[in-house]
Design a protein that fits this description.
- Helix content is about 20%, strand content about 30%.
- The chain is of the alpha+beta class and about 425 residues long.
- The strands form five sheets. Strands 8, 9, 10, 11, 12, 13, 14, 15 and 25 form a nine-stranded mixed sheet that branches. A six-stranded antiparallel beta barrel has the order 19-20-21-24-23-22.
- Strand 20 and strand 21 form a beta hairpin.
- The termini are far apart.
Length: about 425
Amino acid sequence: MRRTFARRTAVIGSAALLLLGPAAAIAQAEPEAEPVQTSALPAELVEALQRDLQIDAERFLADAQRSQELAAFAEKAREQFDAVFAGVWLDDRGTATVGLTEGEGFDEARSAAEDAGFTVAEAQRSEDALEEELGALGDWLETQPPAVADVVRGIAIDVVNNDVVVRADNVSGFELPDFLDGVRVLFAPAELTPEGATDLQHIAGIAAPDALFGGDAYAAMGAGEGLRCSLGFNAEDGNGRPVNITAGHCDPNRSQAGTRWAAQVHQLVGDALGQHLGSFEKTVLDRSDYALIRPTPEAEGRFENNGVRVPLAAPLPITGVADPVVGAPVCKSGLRTGYSCGVVTAAGQNVEIGHRVLENGFSTNLCALQGDSGGTLVTGTLALGISSASNVGQYGMCEIAGFVSGLLGESPELFATPIKTVLAENPGLKVRTW
């Protein structure tokens, strides 16, 4: 299969296992200016932050806010200082960093960054220069025979190391041309087959009135298949009606989304089906990976909240939406592994997943397993993305996944569709923040 990898990408991630078992203006309100109290974070999330990142709730909220300040600065810097701007990131100490290279406008850019309270790191090449190199690599790939081109799973810019990265299958003899000398080549693990669930049985009389939150379990039934997934962010459409934003690959009957033959969604109670919650109204797997679940009239009230959680635990209230920034702290919730926390390792990247390319997604160093698909990724109390794919989803436990991937010279990676991408493609759609 031939593919074209678009520009405006960042650190590349591995080919991934699906986790089953700028367009229109975004109407979503920006994050609230009022500081969020650490008491708003549920105990399970605080525990995950300490376990996975060795940080407390206060640091989590502060770094999340700082990352959004960097994102806003980057948007302006790309226009005002394009000749010298080399990206933004948070380092492992939470230092907000702006990369700049020598050239016209360097002094002005440095002053602007420092006046905003950011640390300046000198870089060898600007973001535009790296994109030109990335474009040359993409052009070269288009001239190669399938035996060469199909080895490449993605191409990207690494803003922290200020270079270009190729993710390729682990095969011998793959070499880049001389004009791309210095481009790093990293191996990609093979794609793995998701696990379905066709043996789910209904529980008679289940119609619980309690609220449903992002991270709770559901089963998608359609086209003779049953898939276990996690609810994403509760939202409302342009008419004020509730929907849930989850992963597109969780829909087993994607071509019929929005019709009377659409896959049906049920609450998942252990290994059994609970209340009929709704159906898939819209499913997207072309460039992005998301779906909108439309609740039934009987279940609508259960989705009218702004929480995400570990299943059956206290929810985290969502207060706004965020852009992924490299180095920003991020936590995901899902039915299989609950909360796990890490950092954003890439923003705006393209990565091949099976026979499609997830465009403008972001990656993290999080562990996610089969069943976590569709669940939420947050930074602080801000909605960040929807869990789309993982390179360790086949393992039974994150401890095993981390150990085995370490032996192979890899680390767990979770790939996500940015929530702002979903909002941009669906005018009037808003993540619930109340």
